[in-house]
Design a protein that fits this description.
GO terms for molecular function: epinephrine binding; monoamine oxidase activity; NADH binding; oxidoreductase activity, acting on NAD(P)H. With 345 residues, the chain is an alpha/beta fold. The chain is built from ten helices and 23 strands. α1 packs across α10. The protein binds flavin-adenine dinucleotide. Flavin-adenine dinucleotide binds next to α1, β16 and α10.
Length: 345
């Protein structure tokens, strides 16, 4: 019998972990896993951006640090131990001004940037990973899924797992539109996200940014919510590599300027940054990222971890919208997806 083929759509935390957990759960050779993402690299909303002037100078534009909450301390401990053992995570020791610490919570940072978590799981998964593959349509053809991408090509799979934000699931065309039943559509349509912008500022080697914190939450500015001196957050002293700064806007600002021209939004954020940090030196490069789907504000009702849209062949969706918006939520969803696949096999 030909080897079954599974496609995971999305190389963020949920998709990459799902691919790694499939490998751990199934007998060797039982399933060939492919992973497609429309972006040019791994990470999704846990993305790490590189300075065009020096790829060693990086900034986390999405997720900033990872928190193991007490409610998951037992259930998820092994994931954290594995990432700590591989040096992907380290305890967060740098001072974060204004951070609200939950009792018993443990915070971690990623010395190589948050996208290194997804990259770690992609390596472990042994999956064939393809970037710049934007899935647009899914059809049911003779007991398999035909998955079409924007560039025009399509391939057949026995299992398809969608870990993309829910509004992007609802944008997919083809048979999937009628396969999602009325109650599922209602649940998916109830999901909502916050929106915000992020700026990554990259500096020349030798630039000094003298502040007594590594990151800080801002509460008295209409535009800026969070600033991180990203190398400092990761305990990296700038040497021959320049420092980098990340600025996150507030959600009200993100919503107000969501459809504006990115250049203009960047200018507005820089003007506010000048007010908050008047002594900040001029960067050599700036990246402006719009997070239309930033953090989940209303998850799928009852947080089921995954939603099975079709049993045989399997079509399953998951991701942080099916739990909650952080790494623990992605672990939980990936575990639920893999359990559902095992039941359907
Ligand atoms: C600004 C910001 C700050 C955050 N801070 C933290 C934090 O400090 N700590 C924390 O734990 N979490 C944080 N989060 C939340 C965390 O980043 C998310 O919960 C997590 O990254 C979601 O992962 P995911 O894999 O479920 O989805 P995503 O990361 O969104 O991954 C989905 C992937 O699917 C791809 N995709 C979408 N549509 C298609 C398509 N049609 N075809 C192919 N590919 C497609 C996308 O390119 C993306 O790579 C933050 C998020 C943001 C935006």
């Amino acid at each position: 019998m030909a080897q079954a083929r599974a496609l995971v759509v999305g190389a963020g935390l949920s998709g990459s972990l799902c691919a790694a957990l499939l490998r751990r759960a199934l007998p060797p050779g039982a399933l060939r896993v492919e992973l497609w993402d429309k972006a040019r690299g791994a990470g999704g909303r846990a993305a790490t951006s590189r300075s065009p002037a020096d790829p060693r100078c990086t900034a986390d534009l999405g997720a900033q640090y990872i928190t193991l909450s007490p409610s998951y301390a037992q259930r998820h401990r092994s994931f954290y131990d594995d990432l700590l053992a591989h040096g992907v995570l380290k305890p967060l020791t740098a001072p974060i001004k204004g951070m609200v610490m939950k009792e018993g919570a443990l915070n971690f940072m990623t010395p190589q940037g948050t996208s290194s978590i997804a990259k770690h799981y992609l390596r472990e998964s042994g999956a064939d990973v393809f970037y710049e593959r934007h899935v647009t349509q899914i059809y049911l053809r003779d007991g398999k899924w035909e998955v079409c991408e924007k560039a025009g090509s399509s391939e057949l799979f026995d299992i398809v797992i969608l870990t993309i934000p829910v509004p992007q699931i609802l944008q997919l065309q083809g048979d999937i539109v009628s396969i999602i039943n009325g109650s599922q559509r209602q649940q998916l349509e109830s999901v909502s996200y916050s929106s915000r912008y992020a700026l990554g500022l990259f500096y020349e080697a030798g630039t000094q940014i003298d502040v007594p914190w590594a990151a800080q939450y801002i509460t008295n500015n209409p535009c800026i919510r969070f600033i991180s001196i990203d190398n400092k957050k990761r305990n990296i002293e700038p040497s021959e590599v320049g420092p980098s700064v990340v600025v996150h806007t507030s959600v009200p600002f993100g919503i107000e300027y969501l459809e504006w021209d990115r250049e203009k939004v960047q200018q507005l954020i820089l003007e506010q940054l000048e007010i908050v940090m008047p002594d900040l030196p001029k960067p050599i490069n700036i990246k402006c990222q719009k997070w239309r789907y930033s953090q989940v504000t209303t998850p799928v009702p009852s947080c089921p971890g995954q939603m099975t849209l079709h049993i045989s062949p399997s079509l399953i969706c998951g991701g942080d919208a099916f739990t909650h918006s952080n790494f623990d939520g992605c672990i939980e969803s990936a575990m639920c997806i893999v359990e559902a696949i095992k039941c359907n096999l």
